[in-house]
């Protein structure tokens, strides 16, 4: 599995076997998977949990990465992107276009036969997945101010980042720390195997925070005050699919 760089269109063939309690593949033979094409920038970002999950779930997909922002802007202007945002998952040669990361992850989990069949377990997975959005919405607003119609001058933005660093992010991390401390399996929704919520949070804790907080909040970047979160990141990194994904990306 070799992945090209800018403007790449790489077919990623994945395979894995998983027997899970509450997250299990269908016993009966599944129909062939749809043709999938993930369109995103040539960065990790919101595309990374999707790429990682496809690897884990054994789903083949075309990993298409824009050559530049102009390519994304063109799709935005011509109406290809339903909400003007990416990631975009094209299904069956573009017959269907899916956006919003959480919706894409749920869809992939379902077609892989890994979405929880127990409604209660499914709701718990969904709750943790939605919490990932809530936990980092302040960062998103402070970074992309005009998108949300909240223009901030530099002084106000500095104060906002200070509050996010000192209060908002630690509060949300404490929620996740408690979830992991009470989990018997080490996964966020206490599932036997990692769910889509785990992949979303793995990216945030293992890649996003170390990148954005390394200069102004090293204690958050290192998760030094959140040992259960550190253990979770290590557990996810130790998955064969995750190790193979990053080995192929080098």
Defining key terms:
alpha+beta; 5-stranded mixed sheet; 9 helices; 250 residues; single chain; globular
List the helices and strands and how they pair.
Elements: E1 9-12, E2 36-40, H1 47-57, E3 61-65, H2 69-77, E4 88-91, E5 96-99, H3 101-111, H4 119-143, H5 154-182, H6 196-212, H7 218-221, H8 227-237, H9 240-249
Helix pairs in contact: 1-3, 1-6, 1-9, 4-5, 4-6, 5-8, 6-8
Short structural summary:
Helix content is 51%, strand content 9%. It has 250 residues and is an alpha+beta fold.
Question: How would you describe this structure to a colleague?
Answer:
This protein is an alpha+beta fold. Helix content is about 50%, strand content about 10%. The chain has nine helices and five strands; from the N terminus they run E-E-H-E-H-E-E-H-H-H-H-H-H-H. A five-stranded mixed sheet has the order 1-3-2-4-5, covered by helices on one side. Strand 2, helix 1 and strand 3 form a beta-alpha-beta unit. Helix 1 runs parallel beside helix 3. It is globular, with a radius of gyration of 18 Å. The termini are close together. The N terminus is likely disordered.
The count of β-strands is 5
Secondary-structure content class: alpha+beta
Low-confidence stretches: 1-8, 16-21, 24-28
| Largest sheet: spatial strand order | 1-3-2-4-5
Any idea what the radius of gyration is? Answer: 18 Å
**What is the CA–CA distance across the termini?**
11 Å
Instruction: Specify the biggest β-sheet.
Output: 5 strands, mixed
Average pLDDT value? 87
Order of helices and strands: EEHEHEEHHHHHHH
Strand content: 5-15%
Per DSSP, the total helix count is 9
* Assembly annotation: single chain
Fraction of residues in H or I helices = 40-55%
Mass-distribution shape: globular
